[in-house]
Write a structure and sequence with these properties.
The complex is a heterodimer of chains A (308) and B (265).
Chain A (H helix, E strand, L loop, with lengths): L10 E3 L2 E3 L3 E3 L21 E7 L12 E4 L2 E4 L7 H14 L5 E5 L4 H12 L6 E5 L10 H4 L2 H12 L6 E4 L7 H10 L4 E4 L3 E4 L1 E2 L4 E2 L5 E5 L4 H12 L6 E4 L5 H10 L3 E4 L2 H4 L3 H15 L15
Parallel strand pairs in A: 3-4, 3-16, 4-7, 7-8, 8-9, 9-10, 10-15, 15-16
Antiparallel strand pairs in A: 1-2, 5-6, 6-14, 11-14, 12-13
Helix pairs in contact in A: 2-4, 4-5, 6-7, 7-9
Chain B lengths: L1 E12 L4 E7 L12 E6 L9 E4 L2 E5 L2 E10 L3 H6 L7 E8 L12 E6 L4 H12 L7 E7 L8 H6 L3 E6 L6 E2 L3 H10 L4 E5 L2 H13 L4 E4 L15 E3 L7 E3 L6 E3 L6
Parallel strand pairs in B: 8-9, 8-12, 9-10, 10-11, 12-13
Antiparallel strand pairs in B: 1-2, 1-7, 2-6, 3-4, 3-7, 5-6, 13-16, 14-15
Classes of the chains: A alpha/beta (308), B alpha/beta (265).
Chain lengths: 308, 265
């Protein structure tokens, strides 16, 4: 490889070509404009925006977050502006950026998911969607659809029939066998999988003897969950043919490279954005430096090279 | 808004659990408003994991240049314990200035400020801004409350700005033995100010807002919340809005300074 030449970081997620494998995880990057002053947004591989519902959702009562060892619990409850405000107020800015915008969607019923998918289908400026069947913090929707293989199949199938946009399905770690769900979601027509969403957890204030979150339980994220995410990604890539996107506790390039070597086609950076707003671009630079150092000219040649 | 590693200029203990830390961050901070905050991270550490919000206590000015900010903090947890160990020359990672600060309406002359404990932190910056707007300090009064005399902070700073001070403590070790809201209410009743600014524990703020409502005085309060990002991405710092009951406001974007009429405490 020519020393001056940059390694090829391109990856394909279904029909979507990414210039590098680093995406922002839904719910940790707002609608990107929040970070405009802090990070060069155009260098990011893809932007996945905050989970969207048909109508605006108020979210859960506070307190909504608490720090835990090497991570945090959140129970935001998918507060979002709703489809219409997203299109008129948030999407125009996203359209000015070069990375593809992927919209994370959720609903309280199969019909809601399907309608959202169908209405997004014709909106200009959206490269694809990520279907959230794994949020642990809402009573209806989210994990209710992602907890068993059959309901996951039916939901993804219903969404698939209403959209031609590339569809990623985000899976939950709070299940007995993620591979059974992954296989069904693939069969139902998903173009890619992303995993893991947060792990259900809890924290208690010993002085008041009350939960630290108003929602009682929340989703654990951050470096504390990375080994679990990595194990589940590794298990999943062995049983599906569609691309798997690794997410969970990625803080730096080394973390991201572990997922790529395990077989993830791309990665999502989530909680790290809160700690280091430039986490995504730092990781892109670190992956590139690793490839140069190891004389690997294409990232694709590194993906799934785990030996065991 | 900037995010950078900045140098600790000083880190002085000013009371049993209170410190003032000077941070050299001239770039991007000069136009900060009083009441705005920073998100601070101890460089290179995984514990504490998330950044922590701190209000700006004052700008560090050298002639016409802003050379940094001072943060007044109380040691309450893991982050502030570690912060207290920092020495001049050490680095911390700072992001700011963030949020919406205090608004000073044009033409105000009579201003009351109520501070409870560490809640005084953003209010000294406010006092400097009142002076900068050439508001006569003789029309400004500070109601300074704390549990005990060591919790009464910055009295001298306000005094040197020419503002009258009403100190109170819960145990009577300094000033009047009562809540800070008692002399505040008495003074408001006697001659209402044009605006009340307050920062302190939730119970105190509730009481201040009640006084402001009773005497129909505009009131701005600075409130605290746990938050992860500080810039409106995580939506962790929700507070209930008063009018829009279906909607939450967010301390990091809509606050931390709110019109008392807008937020449900």
């Amino acid at each position: 490889m020519n020393k001056k030449q940059h390694p090829d970081l391109c990856v394909d997620i279904g029909k979507i070509r990414l210039k590098n494998p680093v995406m922002t995880a839904s719910g940790t990057f707002g609608y990107a404009s929040e970070y405009a002053q802090l990070v060069d947004l155009n260098r990011i591989g893809a932007i996945i925006v905050k989970g969207l519902s048909l109508v605006p959702a108020p979210g859960n009562p506070p307190p909504r977050t608490v720090e835990t060892p090497c991570g945090m619990l959140n129970a935001i409850g998918l507060e979002n502006v709703g489809l219409e405000a997203f299109i008129t107020e948030k999407l125009p800015f996203l359209k000015t950026l070069s990375p593809p915008t992927l919209v994370n969607i959720y609903g309280q019923s199969t019909d809601e998911y399907a309608e959202l998918a169908s209405r997004l289908n014709d909106v200009e400026g959206i490269a694809g969607m990520e279907v959230n069947i794994s949020c642990p913090n809402v009573k209806k929707g989210g994990i209710a659809f992602g907890a068993d293989p059959k309901s996951a199949y039916h939901l993804v199938n219903a969404v698939r029939s209403r959209t031609s946009l590339p569809m990623i399905v985000k899976l939950s770690p709070n299940v007995t066998d993620v591979t059974a769900i992954a296989r069904n979601v693939e069969e139902a027509g998903a173009d890619a999988l992303s995993l893991i969403n947060t792990i259900t957890g809890m924290a208690i204030d010993i002085d008041t003897r009350r939960p630290k979150l108003a929602n009682i339980t929340g989703g654990l994220s951050g470096p504390a969950i990375k080994p679990i995410a990595l194990r589940m990604v590794w298990q999943t890539v062995q049983c599906v043919k569609i691309p798997v996107i690794g997410v969970g506790g990625i803080m730096n390039a080394k973390d991201a490279l572990e997922f790529l070597i395990a077989g993830a086609t791309a990665v999502q950076v989530g909680t790290a954005n809160f700690v280091n707003p430039r986490a995504t671009t730092d990781i892109i630079e670190g992956i590139e430096a690793f490839l140069v150092e190891n004389k690997i000219s294409r990232l694709a040649d590194l993906i799934g090279t785990l030996e065991w | 808004m900037f995010q950078d590693k900045v140098q600790v200029l000083w880190n002085r203990k000013i009371g049993p659990l209170y410190y003032k830390i000077g941070l050299g961050c001239g770039r991007g901070i000069a136009d900060a408003d009083p009441g705005q905050f920073i998100m601070l991270r101890l460089s290179g550490r995984i514990v504490p994991f998330l950044r922590r919000p701190f209000s700006i206590h004052r700008l560090i000015r050298n002639e016409d240049r802003t050379e940094g900010i001072e943060v007044l903090y109380r040691v309450v947890g893991e982050c502030t314990q570690k912060l207290a160990l920092l020495r001049p020359g050490d680095f911390v990672d700072v992001m700011g200035p963030l949020g919406k600060g205090f608004r000073i309406p044009d033409g105000v002359r009579r201003v009351f400020i109520a501070a409870g404990g560490i809640g005084v932190a953003p209010l000294l910056f406010l006092a400097f801004s009142l002076r900068k707007k050439q508001i006569d300090p003789s029309g400004c009064r500070i109601f300074l409350g704390g549990k005990t005399k060591t919790d009464l902070l910055c009295g001298e700073d306000f005094r040197s700005l020419g503002m009258a001070i009403h100190p109170t403590t819960d145990d009577g070790s300094s000033g009047e033995m009562c809540f800070v809201t008692h002399p505040l209410e008495a003074a408001v009743r006697k001659e209402p100010p044009e605006i009340i600014y307050a920062c302190g524990p939730p119970g105190m703020l509730k009481c201040v807002v009640g006084i402001a409502e009773k005497f129909k005085v505009p009131c701005q309060i600075s409130i605290e919340s746990r938050m992860a990002c500080g810039i409106g991405a995580c939506l962790g710092c929700a507070v209930k809005g008063k009018e829009l009951t279906e909607k939450y406001l967010h301390v990091c974007m809509d606050g931390p300074v709110f019109d008392a009429a807008a937020v449900e405490l």
